[in-house]
Every structure is written in C-alpha cells, then in structure tokens.
Amino acid sequence: MSIHPISAVWLVVFGLLSLPVAAMESDVVEDNEPQAERINLEEFPPYVLTQKFFDSLYRKAEAAQPGPDDYEKDCMVLDDEVSMLMPLTYRYVPGFYSDPKNAFAIWMGTLGVLSVTDVEVLDVPLWYGYLGFSGYKRHAEEVRIRKANLRIGALRRVKARKRCFESF
Asked: What is the pTM assigned to this prediction?
C-alpha cells in the first residue's frame, strides 16, 4: 500500500507522519561522526501548529472576571449594563434543519444546478458551499452569546459583592 505524494506532504506538515531524519538517532558515537540530535516533539513545527489548531477547536472553561472599573460603577449602572447585554444572548440564526435556506441549498445541490465541471477535483455543486457559511454564522452567534454571558456573569458578581438591591 502506497501513500499518494500529496497526502504524504500533508501528513508530514501536520506531524502525523514523521520524517526519517527526525526519527534517526545514533546510539554509537564515533570520534569523527557527530551524533544526530534528537528533535523535541514540543518544538517540532508541525506538532506545534496542529496542537494550536486542535486546542482552538474546543473552547476552554472560562471564569467571569470583572474589570477594574466595574467596582467603581453604581448599582443602577451595573443593572443597566446587564439589561443592555441581555439581547446579545438571544439566538437569531435558526437551527440547521429549521433554516429554509439550507433546505434550498441542499435541494439545488442535489439537482446539480451550477456545479463546477471544468475542474475534475472540484466536481461538487456550488450550492453546498452555503452550508459552510451557515455553519460559520451559527459559530459566530455562539461566540457572541458566550462573550455576552461571560460579561453578564462578571457584572452579576460585582453586584453581589456590592450587595446591590438588598433591603435592610
């Protein structure tokens, strides 16, 4: 079984296929021959790139950290800011199966309208490209909601520490 040359290049770039030079190590040290240096995997560029890529795929748990100027704000100002951020937590993009544009793109792609037939590799209907854009919109919306929720959590923490709206 052989690997296509382009596939081998991508596997080397992503660090999944090691180079023979990187794996070569000399146990016996001759007086004239320098010892082949061993590559540290944490410093190997393909490993570093793939590690950063896979770390960015999934979000990490974040704690709501209030800013230094948040403690100087009045309770009413904090409450107003929370109420201004609340609309940013709503979902406006419909789900994948609820979006009629996705259904239209799949329907037109299945019919094969406007496909790229000049290039043999890209013989995919162009309508399927909208599905990627739809996924990007959904991702951007989730990032916006997550940032707004973190900010609201930080402001609520400040309100709790200041004991806002307590009746004595």
From this structure: 0.60
Residue type, 51: Q
DSSP secondary structure of 34-87: PPPPPPPGGG-HHHHHHHHHHHHHSPPP------TTGGGS-HHHHHHHHHHHGG
Which pLDDT tens digit goes with each residue over 57-82?
A: 777 778 888 888 999 999 999 999 99
d(CA 100, CA 91): 16
Cα distances from 168 to residues 9, 24, 76, 79, 165, in angstroms, run 70, 75, 18, 19, 9
Give the closest residue to 147 by CA, choosing from 70, 76, 92, 65.
65
Buried b (16+ CB within 10 A) or exposed e, 138-147: beeeeeeeee
Closest CA to 66 of 163, 153, 165, 167: 153
Tokens encoding 49: 């790139």
Radius of gyration (C-alpha) of the chain in whole angstroms = 27
d(CA 4, CA 9): 9
